[in-house]
Design a protein that fits this description.
Helix content: 55-70%
Largest sheet: 3 strands, parallel
Structural class: mainly alpha
Strand order of the largest sheet: 3-5-7
Strand content: under 5%
Number of helices: 21
Number of strands: 7
Distance between the termini: 30 Å
């Protein structure tokens, strides 16, 4: 059930989180543009469009879009092969049209088949990458560009060799600022009276302290002063004419070039898959358990890429790092995403000289905490306790994401999950029937004998369309296998949606360990078995092994 969003209902928390995302996004936009061989401002333009245009059109409450590290190699190769950046922009525009078409074709529903253990493995892998990549910046070694997620780095080094090289480039000033920033950020989360200052995020205080402290070091001529190459480096136009030259428009004469179309299809497919993965992850992070219409999201991304291309920006996707920062900062609606885009636009036009004083060490501290929250030890423990059928796809996805890339990691995790499901569920079926019912009757949902994560779409749609003030019995009496994805889906329905819409829920036939809290007693009156076809939206959660079967 989709509800209208009041963008200004949570302006205080959304502004604070938007400010944090802006601070994180600024160096990432610049770093990805640099690594892509594109003009630096093209990354900023992409970030602005991702925030304002895609943020407004999207139905996601937490997702943040912008230039993605996963497209860096594709963009770098494409610009070289096509010979000109303006011709490349034509390919980006066409890619946007393709994504828009995919949205109308309802291709977004493929996200319904991403298992939760794979999504969680992807998030934990991204968290580890963030930590490994930001540690050198925290110590003052900035050889790698901000936002890089590849294990193999430019120049032949890799993530681990870069960590070892840190010992040859340690800057005490960077370490002091990193530690102080971490202390501020942790205190802002833990100290009660500081937690109440929602309008002033800890990240902003950390940035201000970092800038002021480095200015003190510099004015005193101290060896602790952080050099210019270790600060944010935003191009500063010196005249209006120079600013106009920054905006590059597509050269549509390249539309007849077959290479342009190959690049366009490549960007469209890769960007769409990364977006759907990020949207699935964003919905997992949403404490209110709201779900995004992924077909609308593809349309929003397509329009965003078309606008970005027309303004001279890089291709964009929904990105996990900024989305995670948004969620961790307490965002309540997509207003925070829009605010981050507006702040990017205003700041680069009015105060670029101030932004260029921000130490990368301070931003590294912010991202280190984001990485930790994505890869918390409790996540590993959770999947370990769920057994090998949950842990193996989780850890395989994580390792593949760290050592290869996001798409290969997720593909491996899904393949392993499918093998496990096929092994145990080759002959299992899932079926519902739909009949007419009158107001006041009890809605009876009978779970099939075998319920895997492949059934999440239908069950989610069923639960999502249950009307307010209903009485529902969810019966698992005949069920011998049920995925944790489904259990978590039912739990979220009972604890969030049912309470909000005054729906009385009774569980029948579930093992005691999975009984949900405060289930309402409902008369054993069954008027029909509720059926809905494959859901239009995505899914959530985890599977369980045969030892944890519902009885």
């Amino acid at each position: 059930m989709t509800k209208k969003i009041n963008l200004f209902a949570n302006l205080k928390s959304d502004f604070a989180s938007g400010l944090v995302v802006f601070l994180v996004a600024l160096p990432l936009c610049l770093g990805i543009a640099m690594a892509s061989g594109a003009p630096l401002f093209s990354g900023i333009i992409s970030g602005i469009v991702g925030g304002v245009v895609v943020g407004y059109l999207s139905t996601s409450n937490l997702s943040v879009s912008g230039p993605a590290a996963g497209l860096t190699a594709i963009v770098l190769t494409a610009i070289t092969d096509l010979g000109a950046f303006d011709v490349f922009l034509t390919a980006v525009f066409i890619a946007g049209l393709i994504q828009l078409t995919l949205g109308f074709m309802k291709a977004g529903t493929i996200s319904n088949y991403f298992p939760t253990n794979v999504i969680e493995g992807m998030l934990a892998g991204i968290g580890i990458i963030i930590i490994l990549k930001q540690l050198p910046h925290a110590f003052g070694y900035d050889s790698d560009f901000e936002g890089d997620q590849a294990f193999l780095e430019l120049g032949g080094s890799n993530t681990f060799s870069a960590l070892l090289a840190v010992f040859n480039y340690i800057q005490l000033g960077s370490i002091i600022i990193t530690l102080l920033s971490l202390a501020i950020l942790i205190a802002w989360d833990k100290v009660p009276f500081l937690k109440k200052l929602k309008l002033v995020p800890g990240a902003l205080i950390a940035v201000i302290v970092g800038v002021v402290l480095n200015e003190i070091f510099t004015s005193a001529g101290s060896s602790l002063a952080i050099a210019k190459e270790h600060l944010v480096s935003l191009p500063i136009p010196t005249s209006l004419e120079e600013f106009k030259q920054i905006i590059v428009t597509p050269n549509f004469s390249g539309i007849t070039n077959s290479k342009v179309w190959v690049v366009a299809f490549t960007i469209a497919i890769v960007a769409s898959i990364e977006t759907l993965l990020s949207i699935e992850a964003a919905d997992r992070m949403d404490i209110q358990k709201r779900y995004t219409n992924t077909n609308v999201e593809l349309k929003a991304q397509g329009i965003g890429n078309m606008v970005s291309a027309l303004l001279g920006g890089l291709p964009l996707t929904s990105v996990i790092v900024r989305t995670s920062a948004n969620s961790n900062s307490g965002a309540k609606s997509k207003m925070s995403t829009i605010i981050h885009g507006v702040l990017l636009l205003v700041s680069v036009v009015t105060i670029p000289f101030i932004l260029n004083k921000i130490p990368l060490a301070t931003l590294a501290a912010i991202l280190l905490l984001v990485g930790y929250k994505l890869a918390k030890p409790s996540t590993f423990k959770h999947f370990w306790e769920k057994g090998k059928y949950q842990f193996v796809p989780f850890i395989a996805t994580l390792l593949a994401v760290v050592f290869t890339d996001l798409l290969k990691g997720v593909a491996l995790g899904i393949i392993i999950s499918i093998i496990f499901v096929l092994k145990g569920n080759l002959k299992r079926a899932y079926h519902f029937r739909k009949k007419e019912y009158a107001d006041g009757d009890v809605i009876h949902i009978d779970l099939a004998q075998e319920v895997s994560f492949l059934n999440k779409a239908a069950i989610k749609s069923t639960l999502n369309d249950i009307p307010e003030n209903s009485k529902v019995i969810i019966d698992a009496t005949d069920t011998v296998y049920i995925a944790h994805d489904i259990l978590d889906l039912i739990h979220e329905f009972k604890t969030v949606r049912a309470k909000e819409d005054h729906i009385k829920v009774k569980l029948r036939g579930f093992k005691k360990a999975y009984q949900l809290e405060n289930s309402e007693e409902i008369p054993n009156k069954v008027t029909f078995e509720h059926y809905y076809d494959v859901a239009k939206r995505k899914m959530v959660q985890r599977e369980i092994t045969s030892e944890d079967l519902i009885k």
